[in-house]
Amino acid sequence: MNTDSMHEVGRSGKTHAANAGSSVKRKSIGGATSMEVGVTRCRPRRLLALVIATFASDAVSIEPVPLAISNPGFEADFVSEGCFEVLFPAAWPVYDPNGILNGGGNSVGGLNLPPGSVFFPAGAPQGDHAALVFLSSTIGAGPAGLTQVLGDTLQADTTYTLTVQVGNIASGIGPPPCDVFGFFDLDGFPGYQVQLLAGGVVIAEDDNSLAATIPEGEFRLSTIQVSVGNTHPQLGDPLEIRLINLNVADTPGDPGIEVDFDDVRLVAQPACAAVDGDFDTDCDVDLDDFGQFRLCVGGPNQRPSKSCPPGVDADLDGDLHVDLIDYAIFSASFTDAREAE
Ligand SMILES: [Ca+2]
Ligand SMILES: [Ca+2]
Ligand SMILES: [Ca+2]
Ligand SMILES: [Ca+2]
């Protein structure tokens, strides 16, 4: 199996999320769960020294879902170590709205970037290879790049997070066999866009936000995120990712010419219904949430404690106090004591 074919994505993005899909992981505990919570008799907030036991599991935890991208790290097309090559990266058709790609001075291709590479001394961010979009013939003549339409479609009530490594290649001469092409002056940076589309319509993009912060010979992570409700006009349309070289002259002396891309990932986080007590909005009510609740306890007829984190509304019955009644409501939503172990 090509290890580059599917990224593993951990639990990131504490977006309030959920929905149900076949690949969505649901988690619940139906049986009794118990834990002791430090109790003392002196201070109201510590009266929470209770035992949580036998809670119904009516809340669910839903994990982010990585969406399938073909050749996401550009490892499918071999290039000699340390070198570059003009080629069409597998599964990535060109995006060429102005018809400027010519296979010569305006080309797409691949790089093999071991650590110590003259072009990127730290090597490729993922695997050995990266993609290149090289535009030297017609600087200023408009953007070009790579694109891929995915098998997944735009879903309602879902937050999408797209991440791509964007590189600013350094000048240099490659090792044999690509040394025959001589020295490449790649100083400067021509600008980039990373776009997420649905049905051919851009629904989110990073429009060159990192340009000033990517040193020569380094990559930086571009991240775009969009939350899609249930009325988005592109619902059900195929998702698409574009990786674009803006082809804008940096300076007259160092126009830039090339942008490089690697490690493309797209994660969908379905939204979950709001649940009492899910203070960190990760679709469950667990010890992480309890950790926030306990900071808010003021005691009977008391306002929330000053230690209550900003944005946490632990007054679950709306009587302006955070006390044992709120704790009972919190307990009834409790789903998983194991997560915080
Ligand atoms: Ca790679
Ligand atoms: Ca450069
Ligand atoms: Ca939670
Ligand atoms: Ca209350």
Task: Label this structure with key terms.
single chain; 341 residues; mainly beta; Type 1 dockerin domain; Jelly Rolls; 2 domains; seven-stranded antiparallel β-sheet; five-stranded antiparallel β-sheet; 2 helices; 6% helix; 27% strand; elongated; binds calcium ion
Overview of this protein structure:
The structure is a single chain. The chain has helices at 287-296, 324-333, and strands spanning 35-36, 51-52, 65-66, 84-86, 94-95, 106-112, 129-135, 144-153, 158-168, 192-198, 201-207, 218-228, 238-245, 258-270. The chain is mostly beta strands and 341 residues long. It has two domains: 31-62 and 272-341, Orthogonal Bundle (Type 1 dockerin domain); 66-270, Jelly Rolls. The strands form three sheets. Strands 3, 4, 6, 7, 9, 12 and 14 form a seven-stranded antiparallel sheet that branches. The chain is elongated and about 80 Å long. The two termini are 34 Å apart. It binds calcium ion (4 copies). The site of one calcium ion has 8 residues, from loops. Residues 315, 317, 319, 321-323, 325-326 line the site of one calcium ion.
